[in-house]
Design a protein that fits this description.
The chain is globular and about 60 Å long. Helices cover about 35% and strands about 20% of the residues. With about 500 residues, the protein is α+β, with helices and mostly antiparallel strands. Helix 9 crosses helix 14, helix 11 crosses helix 12 and helix 12 crosses helix 13. The longest helix has 27 residues. The strands form seven sheets. It has a seven-stranded mixed β-sheet with strand order 17-18-16-15-21-22-23. The protein contains 16 helices and 23 strands.
Length: about 500
Amino acid sequence: MNRYVAAVDQGTTSTRFMVFDHAGQVVSVHQLEHEQIYPRPGWVEHNPTEIWERTQQVIRAALEKNGIDPRDIAAIGVTNQRETTIVWDRKTGKPYYNAIVWQCTRTKDICDALARDGGQDRFRSKTGLPLATYFSGPKIQWILDNVPGVRAAAERGDALFGTIDTWEIWWLTGGPEGGVHVTDVTNASRTMLMNLETLDWDPEILDILDIPRQMLPEIRPSSDPRIYGYTPKDGPLGASIPVCGDLGDQQGALVGQTCFNPGEAKNTYGTGCFMLLNTGTTPVPSKSGLLTTLGYRFGDQPAVYALEGSIAITGALVQWLRDNLRFFDFSKHVEDYARSVPDSGGIYFVPAFSGLFAPYWRSDARGVIVGLTRYITKAHICRAALEATAYQTREVLDAMEKDSGVKLTALKVDGGMVYNELLMQFQADILGVPVIRPVVAETTSLGAAYAAGLAVGFWSGLDDLRRNWAVDKTWEPQMDAETRERLYRGWLKAVERTFGWVE
């Protein structure tokens, strides 16, 4: 009897395995962090082998923790940090180089060279994306051009490329012993190599970036009744279980929040912040600096598209205060410091550590704190760091309303930072709309579980999933309109101070 569906959630800072029941409630979870590697300023890497080791550890621990028999698991879904790029040897499973993380800015010269012929929006009509260091295509090119032997291996068919979902699914289904080399439409749409209309790799872009097609995975639906593959009995699950769900983390949250109707939006507060608005079965081109991306595709139904606003640094700013400046020992203490002062003392903190993402796409920007006086304390900086997340979300929301013509009436939120009550109240205040947290706030994993469960009939359809969604808490705006607009004007002025720092 299949009682559960499980999800591997491989994020930027940690990996977890979550097991859900039919009501979408968490039955068991285990999570472990992995190392962040910074070889040079602006460069960010992960060790792919460590990530797969952590994956095996969290699977075993989550099953043991609550005595779950793997044979009770109907299906497994995968969700992942998107754009992060791995190239590995098909025969051994050994990576040729560390994973180049989505935040890494090393491909700026490649992007600038591509933009010289056709501008920053050169590929936007096909891919929905501007030329930016964020996406996987230029990262693959960097590995092919800079790591000895990889290009020859790719041309021979020995080197495989994958975003993290592809890496995890390949290993989950056997690795060098028959692992399947697949990705889904949502992850493929973040490489800058997939055509939004055909939902396949674009031959012209592959040619321009000089990327051999044979190294790329097959693009499949996010929820696939044909099943990607099965876990081997001698693998970490110890049973043969279908792997049949795959969603980039933000699309996972869109599905987990059951945003299945056009006009429904969610915002995920994690390492970065990502707002997605369901635009239905037609891609909506953005004129306001947003990304046109895939929302999900279930089986052979038409693909559903979304507009996305991506913010590089939100939760990562709190980690930076913790790890680099040693302001506190645990991230949750940022709220205690922030609450000890009535406001940010007139300062703004713009965390453009990896340049600015939506709606600016300025890789020449760098972080600033403006408005400093001798009155400012550690507590004011903590408060300004939290407020930065809310301001950046407002910028994205304004762009979304402009592009879509849809006025947002409430914002569904999820991710680790939504337990920060001060931030959620300030978010409602600066947006002027209610902010709603669901009972299961870790909706990224839930979305991947939903995708896998739909594929095998564990859930009968979307209405089944909608019935699982329930409100935990709502924050209503309490700030007057004049204060809201005055604070926001100050933020926009601060953002301008970040431009043009890198020449």
